[in-house]
Amino acid sequence: MQNTSIRCFISCLMMGLLSISLSAQDKIELKNSQLEGSNAQGEFYWWKHQAKGGGEANYSIEYNDVNEGSKKALKAEIKSLGTKPWFVSSQFNQKFKAKAGDEITITFFGKKTTGNKSKIKLVFQSDIKGSFQGKDFIMTEEWKSYSHTFVVNEKSSNNQIKFWYMEVGATYLIDDVNIYKN
């Protein structure tokens, strides 16, 4: 019982510290990063998905198992991976500006619904060669907040984020993506 109380306290403390840290940053207002806007074909506005080079995935909108306060989440069912790690991925198509030295923090909520391991890679990249940066996360079976800060190497107006799905047989849910700049 005491261990549960301590874990709850530590979890609340960490979320509070993350909130304080993010409030010192400027949120970059982007269209549909929250994954709520979709068209009649069941596709999210401003998001693009791929499965190529032997990769196979089903991408859809999840309406029932969503993050608290949300109505929709991105669902990716990974059938097979491609010959390169980035061949099965989701890309947020709205690009944003940043200059060298800027710190870009990306937060999102995610979970897995199937799969023993459910590794996902959050990617930050611009149109400048060598700008690629990535951070791996292991998804859990409960909705959880994930966050990582990238430091921009060179000025660009074409920065963007992607999610690479790294496990065959896994089903991923992603929701409430936010991008902050120091």
Give your account of this protein's structure:
The chain has one helix and eleven strands. The chain has 182 residues and is mainly β. The strands form two sheets. Strands 1, 3, 4, 6, 9 and 11 form a six-stranded antiparallel β-sheet that branches. A five-stranded antiparallel β-sheet has the order 2-5-10-7-8, with no helix packed on it. The chain is globular and about 40 Å long.
What is the strand tally?
11
Number of helical elements: 1
Mean pLDDT: 85
Class from secondary-structure proportions: mainly beta
Low-pLDDT segments, ≥5 res: none
End-to-end separation? 40 Å
Report the radius of gyration as a whole number of Å: 17 Å
Strand content: over 45%
Amount of helix: 10-25%
Largest sheet: 6 strands, antiparallel
What tags apply to this protein structure?
182 residues, mainly beta, 6-stranded antiparallel β-sheet, 5-stranded antiparallel β-sheet, 11 strands, 12% helix, 48% strand, globular
Summary of the model, kept short:
With 182 residues, the chain is mainly β. It is 12% helix and 48% strand. The protein has one helix spanning 2-23; strands spanning 26-27, 47-51, 56-62, 73-80, 88-98, 103-114, 119-125, 133-138, 144-151, 156-165, 171-181.
Compile the SSE list and pairings.
Blueprint: H1 2-23, E1 26-27, E2 47-51, E3 56-62, E4 73-80, E5 88-98, E6 103-114, E7 119-125, E8 133-138, E9 144-151, E10 156-165, E11 171-181
Antiparallel strand pairs: 1-11, 2-5, 3-4, 4-11, 5-10, 6-9, 6-11, 7-8, 7-10
